[in-house]
Amino acid sequence: MTxxxxxxxxxxxxxxxxxxxxxxxxxxxxxxxxAKESGCDAIKLQSLYFNSTETEKTLNLKKVTFKKKTxxxxxxxxxxxxxxxxxxxxxxxxxxxxxxxxxxxxxxxHIDLLKKIKVKKIKISSxxxxxxxxxxxxxxxxxxxxxxxxxxxxxxxxxxxxLIKKYNNKKITILHCLSSYPSKxxxxxxxxxxxxxxxxxxxxxxxxxxxxxxxxxxxANLLGAEVFEKHFTHNKKAxxxxxxxxxxxxxxxxxxxxxxxxxxxxxxxxxxxxLDKKSRIAMRRSLVAKYTLEPGKxxxxxxxxxxxxxxxILVNKISKxxxxxxxxxxxxxxxxxxxxxx
Length: 342
Known about the structure:
By secondary structure, the chain is α/β, with parallel strands linked by helices. It has two domains: 12-266, Aldolase class I (TIM Barrel, Alpha-Beta Barrel), CATH 3.20.20.70; 277-340, Antifreeze-like/N-acetylneuraminic acid synthase C-terminal domain (Type Iii Antifreeze Protein Isoform Hplc 12, Alpha-Beta Complex). It is built from eleven helices and twelve strands. It has helices at residues 25-38, 56-61, 73-80, 84-97, 108-116, 132-139, 154-166, 192-199, 216-222, 249-266, 277-283; strands at residues 12-18, 42-47, 63-66, 69-72, 100-105, 121-124, 145-148, 172-177, 204-209, 227-231, 286-289, 304-307. The protein has an eight-stranded parallel β-barrel with strand order 1-2-5-6-7-8-9-10, surrounded by seven helices. β7 (145-148), α7 and β8 (172-177) form a beta-alpha-beta unit. α1 packs parallel to α4 (84-97). It is elongated. The two termini are 44 Å apart.
């Protein structure tokens, strides 16, 4: 049978913690525990030094509000970024909770750290899909790689995938996403998931979900996405870049439930299986005697009525008894059995 949807029953869900821990190590641990309890398969962090992505001038010029004070971006990052020791501790914490640890390295040096602490996967952010030196270094770890595509052209995605495969790393996941936060419905273009599946048949395809919605991922799953990344926070009203568009623990629980239950809701294409046998028996009609039928009576249509339940001779089998004679007395309103006829 031709399938009208590209549904995959798998759903690997990543809670994107990013920097939403705000530099509070205890809050970070609490968030990881809540992600696990919500049903997530993995949590994702961001690994960088305060000056990994911005020039010193930019770090000084950009201002952010943190703990009700206006400070430079550089000062802010120094306060909230995880150090190497904290990466090790979190790795052990995730291992204890049996939840996968993934991180996005924003510096080449951090790739060695991520390999050392044995993350399950490394993610390349969409802004770095053309950072081929970073991708090469990540590919050489032989760890599974996730590539986000929000800022990428198809040619740029192909170039990144070719480079990864050049180093014999074939464990590649490509995430369709938008780099706008939050993403608007009219911007999503989820049908690109089908395009990615067509162009990259040997890669796993997923969806980095930057919407505020908990249902959009189900549509992506129907189109064939298997990996889902969703921003997660301890407080939607907290200061910081991503809190307001992230899911809290209760919302993440619903998000995971939606994806995990989609397989149950869809069922399968098999029409040989009757879906509602109980109702069928209760609501369909059987053949009954319209009035008392004496032995030797030749059955005519006018001798019959059609009444529930449908556990006797069903109305569509009426040709089997018309013209036959009764062997014994059949009372009014009694179901007629083939054993009653000759």
